[in-house]
Specification:
16 helices; about 300 residues; Protohaem_IX_farnesylTrfase; transferase; Tetracycline Repressor, domain 2; mainly alpha
């Protein structure tokens, strides 16, 4: 069976009955919530007053754009989702939603979100939202994910853009501070997903996805995760010394990055002869989620403090 046929084939016994929950799952709500959170942070820490209604509607369109990316990704990845244990129950591979319906939903929401963000906020933000959807659906999903172990690194840009889109929605510009928010997520993504890949390696191998664990092995993956964790600490601490941060931010990110780098170091020291319970990898993966939430939250807290900032 060719890749093309996999995208239109449906499992035996599949039905045309899809619930609203199935269509909601197409939007990848967990990833969408991360985009909403980081975009909101970008909007809140941007300088200048913002009308609450315009701000709320801007976040709504960014969220819908993120959901469109998820639907397009699920449409194209239906073949490999059928192979991987953690994804085979998704709406398309399980047969609850037809591939064509997912594609139509993704394209409709993509167009709607970009146009409405342009009309609600400005066309700078709309441009970056359109670029993000294109990058995730085409550059990452259709090309990088299936062809190179750089998929996580370069493809991580798609998930890194939302805070800059939020900033652009508030100000119509994308200064250095907005790009630093992008850089933090960009450097955070590889160790976050490589920690996950280390304990779901067989899934990626069975689906023939060239994750670093598959192409270069577990030892190299651990080493690269440590390198990016150190790079993340450098970018993060630098961002805390700019207009984004202040004394509180600097103190918090020093602790966050210390724990993150220590976790990556502990993971790097492991060997394939170690226990297969993957406790270290799972611990780093969970900490990475807390890390990003705490890191971006402290930016907002610092900006809200009467005497916050430098």
């Amino acid at each position: 069976m060719t890749d093309a046929s996999l995208h239109i084939a449906r499992p035996e016994g599949a039905t045309d009955e899809a619930s609203l929950r199935d269509y909601w799952q197409l939007l990848k709500p967990r990833l969408m919530s991360l985009s909403i959170f980081t975009a909101l942070v970008g909007l809140l820490v941007a300088p200048g007053p913002q009308h609450p209604i315009l701000a709320a509607t801007s976040i709504l369109w960014i969220a819908i754009g993120a959901g469109a990316s998820g639907a397009l990704n699920m449409w194209f990845d239906a073949d490999i989702d059928r192979v991987m244990k953690r994804t085979r129950k998704r709406p398309i591979p399980s047969g609850r939603v037809a591939p064509g319906d997912a594609l139509a939903l993704g394209l409709f929401l993509a167009g709607l979100s970009v146009v409405m963000l342009g009309l609600t906020a400005n066309w700078v933000a709309a441009f970056w939202l359109a670029f993000t959807i294109f990058f995730y659906a085409v550059i990452y999903s259709m090309w990088l994910k299936r062809t190179t172990s750089w998929n996580t690194v370069v493809g991580g840009l798609a998930g890194a853009f939302p805070p800059m889109i939020g900033w652009a929605a508030a100000t119509g510009s994308t200064p250095l501070e907005a790009w630093l928010l992008v850089a933090i997520i960009f450097m955070w993504t590889p160790p976050h997903f490589w920690a996950l890949a280390l304990f779901v390696k067989l899934d990626y191998h069975d689906a023939r996805i060239p994750m670093l664990t598959v192409t270069h092995g577990r030892a190299e993956t651990r080493k690269q995760a440590l390198i990016y964790a150190v790079g993340l600490a450098i970018v993060s601490i630098y961002a805390a010394t700019t207009a984004l941060g202040g004394p509180l931010t600097l103190a918090v990110v020093m602790v966050l990055n210390g724990v993150f780098v220590k976790g990556a170091y502990d993971m790097w020291r492991r060997t394939d002869a170690d226990s297969d319970n993957h406790a270290v990898e799972k611990g780093l993966f969970k900490w990475s989620l807390l890390y990003l939430f705490a890191h971006f939250s402290v930016f907002v807290i610092e900006a809200a403090l009467p005497f916050g900032g430098w």
